[in-house]
Amino acid sequence: MGRIVSIETSGGEDPAAKKMGRKAGESSKAIWNMIFAISCVFAVSLDPLFFYVMIIDQDDKCLQMDKTLSIVACLTRSLTDVIFLVHFILEIYDRVQNPKPQTQKNGGNSDKKSKIRKLIDHVSVKIAQKMPWLSVFTVIGFFAILPLPQLLIGIIFYTMKGSGFVEHKNVLTFFLLCQYFPRIYRIYLSAKDFKMINGKWIKGLYNMFLYILSSHVLGAFWYFFSIQRELTCWQEACVNHSKDPRACLNAFNCDSRSTIARNITFLNEHCPLDNPNGASSPFNFGIFIDSLQNQNTEHILFRKKFFYSLWWGLRNISNFGTNLTTSTYVWENLFAIFISIVGLLLFLYLIGNVQTFMQMEATKKEEIRQKIKMKKLDVHAWMSTNELPYDIREEILSSIKQTLKQKTLKQHIDADLHNFLFSILPRKTKTSLKRCLCMKTLKKVKILQGMHDKVLTLMCDYLQPVTYIENSNIFRMGDPLDCMLIIMEGTVWTYASSDSQLGRGNSSMGTTPLRKGDFYGEELFDWAPGSFAELPVSSKHVKTRVKVDAFLLTAHDLYSVVSKHRLQWKKGTQTPAVKFMAASTIATTFRRGRRLRAITKVKKLQDMDDKMLTSICDYTTQVSYNENSFIFQMGDPIDRMLFIIGGIAWTYTSSDVQAEQGIPSMAPKPLRKGDFYGEELLDCASDSFTKLPISSKHVRCQTKVEAFVLMANDLKTVISK
User: Hey, what CATH class is 426-573 in?
Assistant: First the structure.
C-alpha cells in the first residue's frame, strides 16, 4: 500500500483543519441565514400592527391610542430589530474581512463618456478601498433597522399635543411606508441567497403567504388611512366652520384635550358618517366609509378590526380593486391603483409559477420517457449480446412493464444497465439471470471443473453485482483476497510492480487484461474447505481500465457454500485443505452423534428441535474426573450439566464431617454410563440465569469418570441464539 507523507504548511496550520473550519463556518452561516430569513417573515408580518395603534373616539370626536397594542407592537418590533442589527454587523464584518476585488472597466471609444466613466470608476474604487463595507445593500439594511415606528409614535403622538399630530400625520405615514419596503426586500434577498423555496408544496405555501401578507398589509393601510381621512374632515370643518380653529384643532387629541365643554355638533354636521335621507355628504370618504360606518376604527376588540381589515384587503386584491368606489382625493386613488397593481402582480406571479411548474413537469416526463425508451433498447441489445434464454428475456421485459405500471422505474432510470436490471428484477429472476451469466465462468475455474452443478448453482446464488469506476484499484499487491471477481463488462488490468514503479505507472512485469468472462481470485477455493487458515493475499495489482461491471463471491459466502455441501465437494480435489476437511467432517459427525445420544436421554431436551440439539452438542466438552474426587459438594452452585459416558459416581447427602469421613447419612445413588446430573440448570435457563441452582447432594467419583459437560454460560449462549 502507499506510504503516508507528512506535509508541513507555513505557520504550522493543518490544511485539513482549515478546511473543516471553513465547513463549520459555512454551516453556522447557513443556520444563521435561516434564522434571519424567518425573522424577516415575522418582521413584515408584525410591522403592520403599528397602523392599528390609533383609535377614533366618535363620542368626543378625538383621537387616542391603544396602549396595550402599542406596547406589544414596540416589543415585537424591537426583538426583530435586534436580529436585524446582529445580521447587519455580521455583514459589515464579513465585507471588511473579505473585501471584493474592484476592477476598473474600459470605457469605450467616446472620449467624453470615457472620461466620465473613468472618473466614476476611480471614485468607486477609492470608496471601496476606504470603506469596503459600504454598498447599496448596506444602506438598505441600515435603513431597515432604524426604530422609526417606535420613535415616531412616541414623538408625534405623545409629545406633539393638540394639532401637532394632525399636522404631522403625513410624516408618520411616509416613514412607515418607506421603511416597510426595505424590510420586504430583505426577505427577497434572504430567499434568493438561501434558496429556501424548494418543492411544489412549499412554493404553493409561499404563494399563499404572499397573498395573505399583502392582504394583511393593505388592510392595515386601509384602517390607518380611514382614520386619517376622518381627521382631515375634522380639520377642514374646524378651519372653515369653527369660531376658534386653533382651539378646535387642539382638542383632537383625547389625552391633551381640555376639560372645558366642547361643541362637536358642527363636526357631526360637516363630517357625517350616515345620511339617512339619501342626501349627499358634505365630505366624500370614498373607499374608507365602510371602515368608519362599521365602527372598525373605534375602541373594539382587536381581533374584530384585524380580520375585518384582512378580509377587505384579500377581497380587493382578488378582484384587482375593481369594486372600489373612490372619491376625487388623489392619494386615495393612488392607493386604489396600488391595490389593483399588487393584485395583478400577485396573479401574474402565481400564473407564472404554475406555468413554469407545468413546463418543468412536462419536460421531466418527456426526459423520463426518452430515458425509458433508450433503456429498453439497451436492455434488448444486452440480452442479445449475452445470449440469454427466451424465458429469462420474457421475465426481464415483464418486470420492466410491471415496474412501469407501479411508477417506480424512474427511481432507477439513471443507473447504469447492470445496476438497473438488478434493482428492478424480482428475486427469482435475479437468481436465474446470475446462474445463466456466471455458470460457464465458474466451470472454467480449474478446481471447480467437474464440480456438482448443485454446488455451482449455490455459488451463483451468492454472487453480488458490483460496478467499479474507471481507474479504480480493486486489489493491491499484498491485500487480503477476500472475494473472487467475475468480469461481465469492461476491462481489468492485473500486474505486479513495486510501490515506486506503480506510482510512475511503470510495471515490472507484463500486464494481463481480464475481460468479459474472465475471473480473478481462484486462490480462495484452496482456502475455503478449511477456513482455519488466514485469507490468501493478492499476488498482483488489479485495476480497472474503464468502468467495469462484475460479480463478487465473498470469502464468507464461499465458505458457507462449502460448509453446506462438504460431501458434494469435488471428490477428486486432493488439496491438503480438502483432505483435512474430509477427515474433520467424519470426526465431527462421530463426536456429535455420541453427544446427541447422551443429551437426548434428558426428558426436557427430547422435545427440542434438531438445530437446538446440534448447537448444544457443539458446546459440550469431554472431561475426566479422578477416582474419589468430588464433582459437586452439597451447597455448591450447579454451573454445569454432567452426562456420564464412563465410570461410576455416587450422589448422597451428609454433613460436612460425615462427608470427610466418607460415611453417608443415607443410601447413595450411583451414576453410570448414560446417566446425567444437573437437570435443574435447564429450569434456570428459562429465568435468564438470574441465579444458579444449588446442588442438593454430593457427587463423588468411585472410579475414574469420563463425561460430557455443558457449562451454564454455554447453555445461555445456545438459548439466546
Answer: mainly beta
